[in-house]
Design brief:
Length: about 600
C-alpha cells in the first residue's frame, strides 16, 4: 500500500512538473480612424500614429510568441483624408484599411459608429473584402430581429496537439441612431449591448476556453461627479458589462479615445487611445486541465507606438494609394471669393473675422442650430486668401477630429460661457494681453470661443465674471432663463476646457462626421464661396452708465467724449425714445479694433 502511495505521489509530481502551460497574447487596436501612415494630415508632419507602426510591433510580438490574436474594436474606415478619398473620390480598388488589416492577419474587428458615416455601400464593401469578420451582436434587422452582422467568432489556436478556443463577441454602442444620418442605418435596430452580451456569453461560455467581449463603447467615469445626460448613461455600458455579465475573461473597449489597462476581478480591460498611438497587449497564461484550459494570470499594458518604426512592407503596399491622396490634398476643390485669412491671431480674437464666421456658419448649416461657437485652436492657423482652396488647406484650419453636438442650454449658460472665454484676456495699464499665470503659463488658445448667431461685446477692463456688457439674440436681449439650441464641438459640449456650464445639458442632436470632412463637403458642393462678416461681436473696454435726471444721448456722449452714434450702436433699445427714463442702464463701449471692410 505504501509503495502504491509513493508511486501515486511520484506520478502526480511528474504531471505537475510537465503540466502544459501556454501564453496567449491579444493585441488590441481601436479607433484607428483611417490611419495607416505615420503622418498628421493636418500639418503634413511626421506623427507617431498608424497601422504601419503597429505592424512592426505586431511582428515583434509574433516572433516571440506564435499564440497571438489581433483584434480591432471599431471606427476603422473613417477619419483621415485617406479614408475620405477612398470613400468619396476613388473606389477603384480595395479599401486600404481593410487591405492592411488583411495583411496583418487580424482575427476580427467590430462595427464602430463611424463605420456608417459613408453609407451602407462602403461598409458592405469592407465586410465583403475583409479576411476577418466584422462583428456586432447588438445590431439587428428591424423587421426580423436577426443579427445584421456576425455576432461572434471563434478562433482556434493549435498547441502541442491541443487547441485553445477563443470566443470573440462584438458589441457596438447603441446610441448611433442619435448621431447618424437615418439613410445610413435604414432598416437597422441597435439593441441594448448588455442584453446582447448576456445572451451570447451564455451561448459560448461552455464551448470556448477564453471569452472576449470586444465593445465599441467604453466607460464614463464622469458619471461619478457629473449630471448624466442620456448619452452618458448609455456610455456607462462598460461598467455594466463588468458588473452584470458573468463569464467573460477580457473586455476590449473603444470609442472614447482613452488609454485604459486594468485587470478587475480577473477580467483584463483595454482601451488603446486612438489613431494607433497606443496598442493594447493582453497576456493570458493558461494551463491545460482535464476539462480544457484554466487561466492562471492576466496582464494588460498599453504600448506606445512612438518607439516603433513604420513597417516598410505596409508603406510599400499602400504607398501608391497614399501618393494619390497626397496629390489630391493639394488639388483645388473650391474657390474662395474674399479672404478667409488671419494675419494676426491675437487681433482675430478681438473682433469677428471671416474665417471663424465661415466655420460657425457651416456648423449651423450642418446641424440646424441658430447659434454656434468655434475656437481658433492655435496661432499657426492661417486660413486662405482669395483663390483656390485645397483639402490640405481645410485640414490645416480644422486640426482636431471633433464632431458636432447641439445642446439645449439657457441664456445664463451662454453668458457664463462668454464670461469663461473673456478670461482669456488681461487688461493692464491700458493694454489688453493674453492671460498668463504660474498655473497656466502657456495660453490655451483653443479655450477661447468666438460665437455666431448672437450679438455680444466683451469689456476686458471689467472684473472677471462681469465682462459681457451686451448679449442679444435676433435683435432682442438674451433671456437668462429661456432655452436656446447651440452647436459646439464634442469636446466643448462635454465641458472640455473648463466650460462646466455645458456638462449634463440635453443633447438635441449630433453630427458624427468630423468637422474637416463637413467643411470639405461644403466647399466641394459649392465650388465657389464668398467671405462674409456680420461683425456680431468684439472685444474692448466699457462700463455701464446709469442715466440721471434730464440726461440725453447727446449729453451722455459728451460726458464720455464719444459720438452719439457710438452710444446708439450698442444701445439699440434706446432708438426712438424722446426721453431716456432716469435709472436706465446705458452701455458705454469702445472696441479695440475699428471696422475693416471685407475684401
Amino acid at each position: 500500500m505504501r509503495r502504491l502511495l509513493v508511486f501515486t505521489l511520484v506520478v502526480l509530481s511528474i504531471s505537475l512538473i510537465f503540466a502544459l502551460q501556454v501564453d496567449l497574447s491579444i493585441i488590441h487596436t481601436s479607433d484607428l480612424h483611417g490611419n495607416i501612415f505615420p503622418v498628421d494630415y493636418a500639418t503634413g508632419m511626421y506623427s507617431d500614429v498608424g497601422l504601419a507602426k503597429i505592424s512592426t510591433f505586431l511582428n515583434q510580438v509574433r516572433s516571440a510568441n506564435p499564440n497571438v490574436i489581433a483584434i480591432d474594436t471599431g471606427d476603422l474606415i473613417q477619419g483621415t483624408p485617406l479614408a475620405y478619398y477612398y470613400a468619396k473620390i476613388n473606389r477603384s480598388g480595395e479599401n486600404p484599411m481593410i487591405t492592411t488589416l488583411n495583411h496583418m492577419n487580424f482575427a476580427a474587428s467590430v462595427v464602430g459608429n463611424h463605420e456608417f458615416n459613408y453609407g451602407p455601400a462602403i461598409l458592405e464593401d469592407a465586410i465583403a473584402t475583409a479576411h476577418f469578420p466584422i462583428l456586432s451582436a447588438n445590431i439587428v434587422f428591424e423587421d426580423t430581429g436577426d443579427p445584421a452582422f456576425e455576432p461572434y467568432t471563434i478562433v482556434e489556436i493549435p498547441v502541442d496537439g491541443h487547441s485553445i478556443r477563443v470566443g470573440i463577441i462584438g458589441l457596438t454602442t447603441s446610441f448611433i441612431p442619435n448621431w447618424e444620418e437615418p439613410a445610413n442605418i435604414a432598416g437597422l435596430d441597435f439593441v441594448d449591448p448588455v442584453n446582447a452580451a448576456g445572451r451570447y456569453v451564455s451561448l459560448l461560455r461552455g464551448i470556448v476556453d477564453v471569452l472576449i467581449l470586444a465593445y465599441h463603447g467604453g466607460f464614463e467615469r464622469d458619471l461619478i461627479t457629473g449630471l448624466p445626460t442620456e448619452e452618458l448613461v448609455r456610455e456607462n455600458v462598460g461598467f455594466e458589462l463588468l458588473s452584470d455579465i458573468d463569464g467573460i475573461d477580457v473586455l476590449l473597449t473603444g470609442h472614447q479615445h482613452r488609454t485604459i489597462a486594468e485587470v478587475i476581478n480577473g477580467v483584463g480591460i483595454s482601451q488603446p487611445s486612438n489613431w494607433g498611438r497606443m496598442v493594447g497587449k493582453i497576456d493570458i497564461s493558461l494551463e491545460k486541465v482535464a476539462e480544457g484550459w484554466k487561466i492562471l494570470e492576466t496582464k494588460v499594458v498599453q504600448v506606445s507606438m512612438a518607439d516603433y518604426a513604420a513597417d516598410e512592407e505596409i508603406l510599400e503596399m499602400t504607398g501608391e494609394f497614399e501618393n494619390s491622396v497626397q496629390q489630391w490634398l493639394d488639388r483645388p476643390v473650391g474657390f474662395a471669393i474674399g479672404d478667409f485669412y488671419i494675419d494676426d491671431p491675437f487681433l482675430a480674437r478681438l473682433a469677428d473675422n471671416t474665417l471663424m464666421e465661415f466655420i460657425n456658419r457651416i456648423q449651423m448649416e450642418a446641424t440646424g442650430a441658430r447659434i454656434s461657437s468655434v475656437a481658433l485652436f492655435t496661432n499657426d492657423i492661417k486660413g486662405w486668401k482669395t483663390g483656390p482652396v485645397t483639402i490640405r488647406n481645410i485640414n490645416a484650419v480644422y486640426i482636431y477630429p471633433n464632431t458636432l453636438k447641439v445642446l439645449k442650454v439657457t441664456g445664463s449658460d451662454i453668458k457664463a460661457a462668454l464670461e469663461k472665454s473673456a478670461e482669456y484676456f488681461t487688461f493692464e495699464k491700458g493694454e489688453v494681453k493674453v492671460t498668463r499665470s504660474w498655473i497656466e503659463p502657456k495660453p490655451r488658445h483653443y479655450n477661447y470661443d468666438m460665437w455666431e448667431g448672437i450679438d455680444y461685446v466683451i469689456a476686458v477692463d471689467r472684473p472677471i465674471g462681469d465682462r459681457v456688457l451686451s448679449l442679444r439674440y435676433m435683435g432682442q436681449p438674451v433671456i437668462m432663463d429661456a432655452e436656446y439650441e447651440i452647436v459646439l464641438n464634442n469636446y466643448r459640449a462635454s465641458g472640455g476646457g473648463g466650460y462646466t456650464m455645458f456638462q449634463g445639458k440635453p443633447v438635441v442632436r449630433e453630427v458624427m462626421l468630423e468637422m474637416a470632412e463637413i467643411i470639405a463637403d461644403y466647399v466641394m458642393e459649392r465650388v465657389a464661396f464668398s467671405a462674409t462678416l456680420d461683425r456680431n461681436w468684439s472685444v474692448g473696454t466699457g462700463s455701464v452708465h446709469i442715466v440721471g435726471w434730464n440726461e440725453t444721448i447727446r449729453t451722455i456722449a459728451q460726458m464720455y467724449e464719444m459720438e452719439p452714434s457710438e452710444i446708439m450702436k450698442y444701445n439699440p433699445d434706446l432708438k426712438g425714445l424722446v426721453r431716456i427714463p432716469p435709472g436706465t442702464r446705458v452701455i458705454i463701449y469702445r472696441p479695440f479694433l475699428s471696422e475693416i471692410p471685407v475684401i
